[in-house]
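re: the backbone from monday

yeah here it is again, tokenized this time
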């Protein structure tokens, strides 16, 4: 069945989630943070994801901005920086302005030129997503930005993936879904999407009942994959 829509996870897939910590570490006067920023960035992302899963299974939903702050607070405390309120605020401000990965603008433009519908499907809260899309300058090549806030539960709940068909009128097999999270790509495959795992870190495949159809190290060839199906 030909692909009609190409749908992307946002954080870590289109947007570089380490950018906020990396950019803050390069600013003058942040030598203490510069020494530990990779650990803070890794801990921040891991706790952010863990809190979405735990809230989803417990039925204790909140928006992604609160989860992002909770994850950052844990990460800063783990590195002995919890009391640095100015650093915390700077990191949160930079998270609203995350950089897109270098290949993303041309890749999205290529999809639009080929006639595919394009969208983001994200745990992100709408204002966060709007800030990142505007900062990256990719809004003109997106037909929709879909947030889990419309269903009140985080991925990988099936109701999140159902939002794509509701928006575009597509069957699952007509959707190419791309995520940098192995678990997200796997669950999307289980839902029926043609899924792509953007495995930028070269990690092993998650041991889940489903596997992504494609595994890439960046998004450059997404238009070629979509056209070949």
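seq for it, each position gets an aa:
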């Amino acid at each position: 069945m030909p692909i009609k829509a190409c749908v992307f996870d946002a954080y870590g897939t289109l947007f570089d989630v380490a950018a906020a910590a990396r950019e803050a570490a390069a600013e003058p006067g942040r030598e203490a943070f510069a020494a530990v920023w990779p650990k803070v960035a890794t801990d921040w992302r891991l706790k952010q994801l863990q809190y979405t899963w735990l809230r989803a299974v417990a039925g204790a939903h909140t928006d992604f901005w609160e989860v992002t702050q909770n994850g950052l607070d844990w990460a800063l405390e783990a590195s002995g920086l919890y009391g640095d309120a100015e650093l915390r605020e700077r990191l949160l401000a930079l998270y609203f302005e995350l950089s897109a990965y270098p290949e993303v603008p041309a890749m999205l433009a290529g999809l639009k030129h080929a006639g595919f519908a394009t969208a983001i499907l994200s745990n992100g809260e709408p204002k966060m997503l709007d800030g990142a899309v505007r900062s990256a300058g990719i809004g003109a090549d997106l037909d929709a930005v879909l947030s889990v806030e419309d269903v009140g539960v985080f991925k990988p709940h099936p109701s999140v993936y159902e939002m794509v068909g509701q928006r575009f009128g597509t069957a699952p097999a007509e959707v190419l879904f791309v995520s940098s999270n192995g678990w997200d790509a796997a669950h999307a495959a289980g839902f029926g999407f043609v899924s792509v795992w953007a495995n930028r870190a070269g990690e092993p495949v998650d041991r889940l009942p489903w596997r992504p159809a494609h595994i890439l190290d960046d998004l450059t060839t997404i238009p070629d994959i979509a056209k070949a199906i």
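The first helix runs from residue 19 to 25. The longest strand covers residues 117-122.
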